[in-house]
């Protein structure tokens, strides 16, 4: 049965074509005086997760409202029931509140201009569609989808515009009313003028679109649908009607809506209303200047929250994606953003998103929290991740016994190293040398050793003096005086007596190499303090300073990695479903360290197909069968010659894993 019209007959009398705008369904929306302060809004659809672009739109509208003493309104555009996702509405509330964006009026807090859910305003929308039909600015369209498709194909073959031909606009009012009254399905279209109305945009300036007259003379009319056949409004109608009756004064949104604005201005003119002030900001793009997507990084705001990014970091980040300021630093909290924000500084062009900037801002905001004593939640995350990675005891080093990893120790580590904190997992993996011997063979160590080795080759006696001085100083300090303040003296000229910056720089390089394998971290005196006296002395004594010494460590590391690969491969292959898809999943196993991923694939290739780079590894393993493939892996790399050959294939000089000739950084 065809749906009965929502715009005529008995149902029309229920909606109330003659209902005055003072009717209670408007909740006093038209009786309020024109607002003296700006009113902005954020109107998301509950169709999924809130993404970075939406957060930016909400933030800009919020900042402007707060900076001008106005109101910020949250309205849900939820009329697309097919795309509405359960729980998405609550997710919007949670993310916005987490970000510190509070609304003055909205679905969950109420307000004088409600209701604030679009689906609860259907009577208002239908009322206004009736008025447009009565005034001749809109008309019912009874054309079926099949007829519209046929018309479009025919006009396309003739190289004509494929817009609607206004067949139903020619119907008499009596015929249109009668067909609607009988329940014939239809939509309602806006009758666009020959010349779209010009308007002024705060970002782009005066906007004037070309005339529609040539298309109209060809019988093609871009008459947008205002009311769908199910009686629900489209974005164009609901957006304009709701903005007007909620007294919205400023509309800030992305430039993707710029082409639709003439339609909205046409609607404002048809109703006899004054349009709000518009500001359209550029889109967010990747480095290839394409629309930002999941392939370019996470776009779901909730993911950043789960990873441990602070709300002030993310707000700061998205605020800078299309807006400039006059501050000396890009690092700004919410109050700084409110104070600085101006629509005059919004950029018209699209913005290329550099996620490295987010990490930079996160470091600074974390450090600010640490200094203000408000980093307890961050410290707990770091402590949990450190416990997951390193357990409850530090690893023994030579004669130095292990010790308990307590919360006080990890708290001190965070406090002195907060400027290097981005997320808990990354922080925990970067401070491993406080809980286990430093790696002198990974990618970071390789770079540090190269910087040190030049001096080692030219002036070995200088490095020897650095080592001797460090041992003398560290050994001279009793445990009772092992404090950061006391240890800071090891770097002073009064202590070591060296003149000139060159020797001081070498001393710092040596200490960073010996204590941490060249890894970044807290200042040297803080690092020594946390590592402890015995451990610091042992590392200074035993750190490799010759290539031959380092090669021994490389070999040990390499052999351990190969055995790890063997054990993991056997375990996975003995249980995986023996299909091409199952085996491919094993070969493509993800490791925390990319270096291990490279070694794993090369080890399997050596074990199964004798290192043949051209062979189809997965296909050969499936062909061999589970038993034979596992046996080859168990028996591979057993002779010294084989180890030498594979080590040369996998490791370059200095112990860095290589793939295709490129250095593979530790992740």
From TrEMBL:
Supply the name of the protein. Glutamate--tRNA ligase, mitochondrial
Q: Which CDD domains match?
A: GluRS_core
Please give the family membership noted in the entry: Belongs to the class-I aminoacyl-tRNA synthetase family. Glutamate--tRNA ligase type 1 subfamily.
Q: Which UniProt keywords apply?
A: Aminoacyl-tRNA synthetase, ATP-binding, Ligase, Nucleotide-binding, Protein biosynthesis
The UniProt entry, under Pfam families, shows:
Anticodon_2, tRNA-synt_1c
Give the Enzyme Commission number.
Answer: 6.1.1.17
Localisation per UniProt entry? Mitochondrion
- The Aminoacyl-tRNA synthetase class I anticodon-binding domain sits at 423-543
Q: Where would you find the membrane-spanning parts of this chain?
A: none
Principal place of residence: mitochondrion
Q: A cellular component term (GO) from this record? A: mitochondrion
The molecular function terms in GO held by this entry are: ATP binding; glutamate-tRNA ligase activity; tRNA binding; zinc ion binding
Q: Which organism is this entry from?
A: Ascobolus immersus RN42
Top class in the EC scheme = ligase
GO terms for biological process, alphabetical: glutamyl-tRNA aminoacylation
Tell me the superkingdom of the source: Eukaryota
Per the database record, which ranges form the Glutamyl/glutaminyl-tRNA synthetase class Ib catalytic domain? Answer: 39-359
Which InterPro entries does the record match to this protein?
aa-tRNA-synth_I_cd-bd, aa-tRNA-synth_I_codon-bd_sub2, aa_tRNA-synth_I_cd-bd_sf, Glu-tRNA-ligase_bac/mito, Glu/Gln-tRNA-synth, Glu/Gln-tRNA-synth_Ib_cat-dom, GluQ/Sye, GluRS_core
């Amino acid at each position: 049965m065809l749906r009965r019209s929502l715009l005529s007959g008995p149902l029309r009398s229920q909606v109330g074509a003659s209902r005055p705008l003072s009717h209670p369904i408007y909740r006093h929306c038209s009786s309020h005086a024109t607002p003296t302060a700006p009113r902005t809004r954020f109107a998301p659809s509950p169709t999924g997760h809130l993404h970075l672009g939406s957060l930016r739109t909400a933030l800009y509208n919020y900042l402007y409202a707060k900076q001008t003493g106005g109101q910020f309104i949250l309205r849900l555009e939820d009329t697309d029931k097919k795309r509405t996702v359960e729980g998405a509405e609550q997710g919007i509330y949670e993310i916005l509140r987490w970000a510190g964006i509070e609304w003055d009026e909205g679905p969950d807090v109420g307000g004088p201009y409600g209701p604030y859910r679009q689906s609860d305003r259907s009577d208002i929308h239908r009322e206004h569609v009736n008025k447009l039909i009565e005034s001749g600015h809109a008309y019912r369209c009874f054309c079926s989808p099949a007829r519209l498709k046929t018309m479009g194909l025919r006009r396309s073959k003739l190289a004509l515009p494929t817009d609607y031909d206004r067949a139903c606009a020619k119907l008499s009012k009596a015929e249109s009313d009668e067909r609607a009254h009988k329940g014939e399905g239809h939509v309602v279209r806006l009758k666009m003028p020959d010349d779209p109305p010009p308007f002024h945009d705060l970002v782009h300036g005066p906007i004037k679109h070309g005339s529609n007259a040539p298309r109209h003379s060809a019988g093609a009319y871009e008459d947008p649908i205002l009311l769908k056949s199910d009686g629900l409004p489209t974005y164009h109608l609901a957006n304009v009607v709701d903005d007007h009756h909620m007294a919205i004064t400023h509309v800030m949104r992305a430039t993707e809506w710029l082409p639709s604005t003439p339609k909205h201005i046409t609607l404002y003119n048809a109703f006899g209303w004054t349009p709000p002030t518009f500001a359209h900001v550029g889109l967010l793009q990747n480095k290839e200047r394409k629309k930002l997507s999941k392939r370019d990084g996470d776009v779901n705001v909730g993911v950043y929250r789960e990873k441990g990014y602070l709300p002030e970091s993310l707000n700061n980040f998205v605020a800078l994606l299309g807006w400039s300021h006059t501050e000396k630093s890009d690092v700004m909290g919410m109050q700084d953003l409110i104070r600085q924000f101006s629509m005059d500084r919004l950029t018209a062009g699209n913005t290329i998103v550099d996620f490295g900037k987010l990490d930079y801002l996160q470091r600074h905001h974390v450090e600010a929290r640490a200094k203000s004593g408000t980093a307890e939640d961050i410290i707990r995350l770091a402590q949990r991740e450190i416990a997951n990675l390193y357990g409850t005891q530090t690893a023994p080093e030579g004669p130095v016994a292990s010790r308990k990893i307590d919360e006080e120790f990890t708290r001190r580590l965070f406090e002195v190293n907060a400027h290097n904190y981005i997320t808990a997992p990354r922080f925990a993996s970067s401070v491993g040398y406080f809980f286990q011997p430093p790696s002198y063979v990974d990618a970071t160590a390789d770079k540090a050793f190269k910087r040190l080795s030049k001096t080692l080759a030219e002036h070995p006696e200088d490095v020897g003096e650095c080592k001797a001085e460090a041992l003398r100083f560290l050994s001279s300090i009793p445990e009772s005086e092992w404090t950061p303040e006391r240890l800071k003296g090891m770097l002073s000229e009064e202590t070591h007596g060296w003149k000139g910056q060159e020797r001081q720089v070498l001393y710092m390089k040596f200490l960073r190499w010996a204590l941490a394998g060249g890894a970044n971290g807290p200042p040297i005196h803080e690092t020594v303090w946390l590592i402890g006296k015995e451990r610091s002395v042992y590392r200074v004594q035993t750190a490799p300073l010759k290539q031959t010494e380092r090669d021994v460590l490389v070999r040990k590391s390499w052999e351990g990695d190969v055995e790890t690969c063997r054990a993991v491969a056997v375990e996975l292959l003995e249980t995986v479903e023996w299909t091409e898809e199952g085996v491919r999943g094993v070969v493509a196993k993800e490791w925390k360290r990319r270096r291990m991923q490279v070694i794993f694939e090369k080890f399997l290739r050596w074990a199964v197909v004798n290192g043949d780079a051209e062979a189809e590894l997965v296909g050969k393993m499936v062909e061999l069968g589970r038993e034979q493939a596992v046996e080859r892996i168990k028996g591979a790399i057993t002779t010294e010659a084989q180890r030498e050959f594979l080590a040369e294939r996998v490791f370059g000089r200095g112990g860095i894993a290589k793939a295709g000739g490129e250095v593979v950084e530790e992740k």
